[in-house]
Amino acid sequence: MQTDAIEQVYFSPAGTTKAVVDEISKAFFGQKNEFNLMWDPLDEETVIPSNTLAIVAMPVFSGRIPDLCAQKLANLKGENTPAIAVVTYGNREYEDALLELKTILERNGFVLLGAGAVVTQHSIFPQVGTDRPDPQDRRALTTFARQCSQKLRAYPEKPLPAIEVKGNFPYREYKVPAMKPTVNDNCTLCGICASVCPVGAIPPDNPKTKDTDLCITCTACIAVCPEKAQGFHSPEYAEYGAVFAEKNSARKEPEFFM
Ligand SMILES: Cc1cc2nc3c(=O)[nH]c(=O)nc-3n(C[C@H](O)[C@H](O)[C@H](O)COP(=O)(O)O)c2cc1C
């Protein structure tokens, strides 16, 4: 089939997941729409019709998909709508995240053309997976997207085979890191961080503070700060980062499931 539109459904606090979605989207024609899960509340049931391709992507947080995304995706329904499911991760592990995303989508009426776990720069420890997706990753994404496109052309006459992905039931426990970004003296109170925070943890009138109970450590505030004021400034972060980098620096390649 030829789809009329592409629905990009994504959560991308630090921007690499969006880069992956854009790379995959290049293989498909049609009007591009989006549900940006950073800010779109998706608090009502929303149906993506079967003549649309859904590209659904989000980062791995502690081996799961972000809880906020799981809640929003509960309202996203398909009608045998073809979809591509992707999780991005920072070269450590993706554990149960892809299985979780696939399971939600299939339960909600989507049929998968393909699924992928793609390595990107680690948003908490950017010294791991630095500058990924890189040209090699982008070529792999193009090949994957073209394979999905071929399957889509033959669908629904040729039914889509079931896709097996890595991961385990029950899923590992979802944990929000205790470590939260803080601001240093560079802060000019511009408030851009408050405007992008997906959980409203930063008061716009006092962006030097943060509601640490609300903050999910997604790093959107760090990614967007024009003064590099938002960040992890503690000595523990530097210490842990060195150990983390040492353990997780060996290059991993993206994995695709068709
Ligand atoms: C709270 C949090 C938890 C994370 N947990 C993992 C993880 O379990 N495994 C991993 O390899 N990367 C992990 N990462 C790294 C992100 O999955 C990775 O950097 C992702 O591509 C970020 O996407 P974005 O650039 O669209 O925000 C984590 C990042 C954050 C912020």
Automatic annotation (TrEMBL):
Q: Which InterPro entries match?
A: 4Fe4S_Fe-S-bd, 4Fe4S_Fe_S_CS, EFR1-like, Fe-S_Ferredoxin, Flavoprotein-like_sf
**GO MF assignments:** 4 iron, 4 sulfur cluster binding; metal ion binding
Superkingdom field: Bacteria
Keyword annotations for this protein, in alphabetical order, are:
4Fe-4S, Iron, Iron-sulfur, Metal-binding
Q: Looking at the keywords, is Iron present?
A: yes
Q: Decide whether keyword 4Fe-4S is in the record.
A: yes
Q: What is this protein called?
A: EFR1 family ferrodoxin
Where is the organism placed in the taxonomic lineage, from the top? Answer: Bacteria, Pseudomonadati, Pseudomonadota, Betaproteobacteria, Burkholderiales
Task: Name its species.
Answer: Oxalobacter vibrioformis
Q: Which residues form the 4Fe-4S ferredoxin-type domain?
A: 179-207, 211-235
Among the Pfam families in the record, one is Fer4_9
List the NCBIfam families.
ferrodoxin_EFR1 (NF038196)
